[in-house]
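Exercise 7. Predict the joint structure of the components listed below.
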Amino acid sequence: MTVEGIRGSSDRSVLVLTSLAGGPKHGYGLIKDIEGFAGVKLGPGTLYGCLAKLEQAGLVEALPAEDRRHPYRITASGLQAVRERLVESARIAELGLGRVAGAMS
Amino acid sequence: MNSWLFRSLVVLYPKAWRERYSKEVGDLSAELLAAGETTRLHLALGLAMSALAERVRSLHRARLVAVLSDGAALAVVVAALLVTNGFGPGGSTGPRVTPVGWSPSSYGDAQVSAPPSPPVLVSLGSGRTGLEQVIATAASTASGQLCLAAPGGTVVCLLPMGMVPPAYAGEKPTVINGVPVYFGPKGDFYAPSLGVEVTASGPLARRIVDTLTRNRIPGCLQTSPRPPACVTGVAETVKVKVSTITPAK
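Solution:
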């Protein structure tokens, strides 16, 4: 997946990037954080599927292991990519909310 | 998580993925189980589904690589075809090999080109048995006395050869238009890959030898006892004087 590829990626990648935008986290921390802000509980396989794609795209990178925990952090490219994706989502959300409000009034 | 079950599930992942992430996934799974965040069954199902997704993704990548490889192979084949048909630097009658206005003459697997003026005598396939074919690109004194430099003129002969003389075989060949050529001491050039010896003398000798390339109709030269001359379809563009001719097969 390329930086551009995140546009067509699943929401899970955005969730992982959004979580890591708040600071480096290991797998368990990511799962709990995402569950907290999005209500989505990722399994280990799903989480590492996302991390593998994001790492391959250079959007996240692994940090040295801490005991049995393996933290990741978002890269500059990852921040840029998730920012673009969230701005786009926000624009669509604003447009959609406006239309819904108009339809309901 | 039961280590046997975990190992069985991890094997389902592509090797590269497994080598990079299996330990981390195992550690995370153990942490989630210890924290009571999930069950073994849920974990097993999730890992199996993810392994399937990774396999599919891996297959797509492999297919992409295969497509790119096929494309590269196709490009090589097309390039080879272009080159051997005169569209590349090593081509037979391409403009980079045959200068504008020059006429190519072929003998066996070899081809040289000569200008229409000044007079150049190109002799093909003469040997001990005598002249087989002479192509003169301008008025010349073509005769049986071939491959002898006329005063002030240029003579180029393409003769059949079997092997590079041992005295030169150990030298590093010079590559002319993709053809390895060994230089002899007296203006003779050996191109074993084309099965010819080129003898050239006169002011344009080297320029003509520099047009040596592979004939676009390879394989028409047969060896002993008397190789037939093989002239490509460009023969009509030059004057041809025939003393003895053996039809091309």
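Discussion. The mean pLDDT of chain A is 90.
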